[in-house]
Amino acid sequence: MAAGGGLLAAAPGARALDRPRPHVRTGTWPPGLEAAARRAMPAAVDYARAAGRWPYGAVLVDVAGGHVVTGASNDSGHDPTAHAEVALLRKAAAAGLHLPDHAVVTTAEPCAMCAGALLWSKVRAVAYGTSVEKLISYGVPQIDMSFAEIAGRSLLPRPPALAGDVRCDLTDPLYRGLMR
Asked: Would you kindly state where each structural domain of the chain is located, as residue ranges?
């Protein structure tokens, strides 16, 4: 981790451009699920565009069928915890969905708060578009810690499979220039 890692970072290039970052992929992905996550990203982008000032979106994908079950947007109102991933988990819980049977596809790498919520929820997999490193390079305020770093420090059994940099062609434009 770069010096100052874990602190709120907003300076462009604070960490993102220090080293090349390969496509992230960890854990066991059921056959067809990563392709389903790629197909689901446009729906997550639609939720992000509906969010307004902070364009973050997430969708829940059924692992068995590969279809989108529901989605959520970041709420830029007065609840600082109303990130798209947390809103999605709340919707899923209210609907009584069994989260280990689902994957979360989100437009940006989950922040530390959302990563913790996703780990506790026991979702099967997480796929994200734009990485925390890229968000920081675009000047978007973030806690400078990747989902993989947070999951790696978790003592919870079986972290979700993880795929990063999924459909960045769709997600990066949401955040490039966001802080202008």
From this structure: 33-174
- In the block, residue with structure tokens 């992000």: 48
Active-site residue (options: 34, 85, 109, 133): 85
pTM score, whole prediction: 0.85
Architecture of domain 33-174: 3-Layer(aba) Sandwich (3.40)
Q: Which amino acid is at 30?
A: P
Show pLDDT as tens, one digit a residue, over the chain (180 residues). Answer: 333 333 333 333 434 333 334 456 667 777 788 899 999 999 999 999 999 888 999 999 999 999 999 999 998 788 899 999 999 999 999 999 999 999 999 999 999 999 999 999 999 999 999 999 999 999 999 999 999 999 999 998 888 999 999 999 999 999 998 887
> Side chain identity at 168, as an amino acid letter?
C
Nearest to 158 by CA among 116, 123, 106: 123
Active site residue 85: yes
